[in-house]
Design brief:
mainly beta; ten-stranded parallel β-sheet; UDP N-Acetylglucosamine Acyltransferase, domain 1; elongated; 2 helices
Length: about 230
Amino acid sequence: SAVIDPAAEIDPAAEIGPNTSIGARVRIARGVIVGPGCVLADDACIAADSRLVARVYLGERCILGERVLLHPGVVIGADGFGLAMHEGRWQRLAQIGAVRIGDDCDIGANTTIDRGAVDDTVLGCDVRIDNQVQIAHNVEIGDHTAIAGCVGIAGSTRIGRYCMIAGASGIGGHLEICDRVVITAMSTVLDSINQPGQYGSGIPARPMRAWQRTLVRLKQLDQLFGPRRKQS
């Protein structure tokens, strides 16, 4: 029941599951397993021994290295969030880059990695991504970095090697994060980080009454530290 374009190149040792769609000039190497319901758009390329578990989308000209594992629902190469205001309405900008994923990467279920606007979105080798992570256009992630679930990374940010980003963190766009940075859970990163180490801004849960007292004190900070009134 697979639909395969005659111009696709599929190694005889690859496995193609039911209800898959494989576009023109797609290249699938030896040992690749394409599970049921996957869609491979034109000119996509999958290197040896990679596996797409089920219902994975691999966009046009996107490239997977060797031994890459994509879990169900992964979307690689959808358009990035490129918009411009024109005459009072949002207009979508063409996203002409692709996505390149290095060897030995593991991408969790329902994670989305957008194609680049001009240059490619790039993941290095041995990058580990948890479920439901959003990686925007033109992001670059270095080798051996691990990212936990529900993290969002805005466009054109570069993350170094051996970084760890804990769950539900948000990273702004056009930032540089150096090698060996640890970002703790639910942190918000809005500035570049150029020194290795552990960074965090999440607020841990507290008993409700204690948290309410903290909120009251927060509201009093302006009175304590704001500009002092001139004495008459």
